Amino acid sequence: MHETDSQEDSTLTPTLPAAASQRTYGVFRNVDFTRYLIARFIAALGMQMMVTALDWELYKRAHSGLALGFVGLSLMIPMILCTLPAGQVADRFNRKKIILGSTLLLGGASLGLTLTSAFIALGQNLATFQFFAYSLIVVIGIGRTFLWPASAAFVTALVTREELPRAITFNSGAFQLSCVLGPSAAGVLIWLTHGAWLVYAINALFALIAIALIIGIRHEHKLPPREPVTLKSLITGFDFVWHNKIILGILSLDMFAVLLGGAVTLLPIFAEEIIPLHNGAEGVGLGLLRAAIPVGAIVCVFFLAHRPPLQKAGRAMLLCVAIFGVATVLFGLVNSQCLGKYFPTASGVWFWLAFGLMVLSGAVDNVSVVIRATLVQLLTPDEKRGRVSAVNSLFIGTSNELGGFESGVTQHLFGPVLGNTMATGAILSTVVGGFGTMLVVLAVAWIWPEIRRYGKLA
Questions:
Q1: CA 423, CA 407: separation in Å to the nearest integer?
Q2: Nearest-CA neighbor of 83 among 402, 394, 373?
Q3: Domains defined for the chain, CATH in brackets
Q4: pTM for the full model?
Q5: Which residues, 6+ apart, have CB-to-CB distance to 418 below 8 Å?
Q6: Lowest mean per-residue pLDDT among 8-12, 283-287, 313-317
Q7: Fewest CB within 10 A of the end CB: N or C in the chain?
Q8: What pLDDT score was predicted for residue 202?
């Protein structure tokens, strides 16, 4: 229920059979893949740092959960408008050039954020800062939307069929590692500089390094014969998903669970106003909380990789999403200010308990990600996988970004609109959203009983 490209990679990792003769690190003898993997890690690390810094800066300037929610909305709009064209572009044009152009666009947007943050000081010209920030976030959304399908298709062409399982494993691991290191590094830099412009500048530099590495890749995408783009070809993926009840059910489960149950958008509020790690070190606390979910996902990947395929995949998915909802509710309750009132000397304990609940959320989330995306691959004919994957990406991306917007709006309603504090609004938004996720699980299990009955994941 997180970043699109990480989901697809982690899904295939535990299910693809490894060739007996393939050595664990043999894929790194492939120079093109090694260059790509390093470039991907550097670019993803910079983006994770940038997103963390941007959330911190927007909240620091506006002191509003609604301002954080608009980040998700600004990313969601270009995703909705550009996902299907991006899939078509990735199949019809040179994928390497698409990756280079998208990465350059992302680096340019980060450079724009650097200049905006550096020249507009904290406490000054809030409206001007928000105008430039949200405009650049839209540009970032466009770049990411075109990057994802081209990158996913490009990496499979860099390795042989025998190397593919290992390549996917390391590709997924590189992204998850960036999710752990990026927020933490951003938090430390924010703590040291009391600003975000340096983080944005580093992301722009990382984009240039990634471009230099990708330029050196020798593989070029061989373009297929040109075919006319029709409305029917664009909506084939939607038509297939609509008529396949299991795929429609699991995508609906993920979309509404993330829409209601995600607390990531509100983490700057929790880190600064509710459970700060130390006085004046909210940036470090924010980085740790953001890193907790990918830490849980990485632990889950290693756990699933050493287990046989799930025997009751449908039930396991429903159970894991329900646990995700419970962990979200408990995260909100742990952050309740009444705990600090009755146990004032244990504030550090509450922070680490909240961190543990985020780790749990990441672990069970990754189980559901593995099951969902694997079923999408298994149940989709090969000739339709690209377009169905585009629909899958749209469901995932939209739910992530719209979920962020929903969290910001409900925090604003439960908080300032009703006369409560920012902290109270964040707590109520998180707890209500977690209960909503559990209700979604019950509804999906009732509407699509095929999911409950689905057996072995293989």
A1: 13
A2: 394
A3: 4-453 (1.20.1250.20)
A4: 0.66
A5: 425
A6: 8-12
A7: C
A8: 96
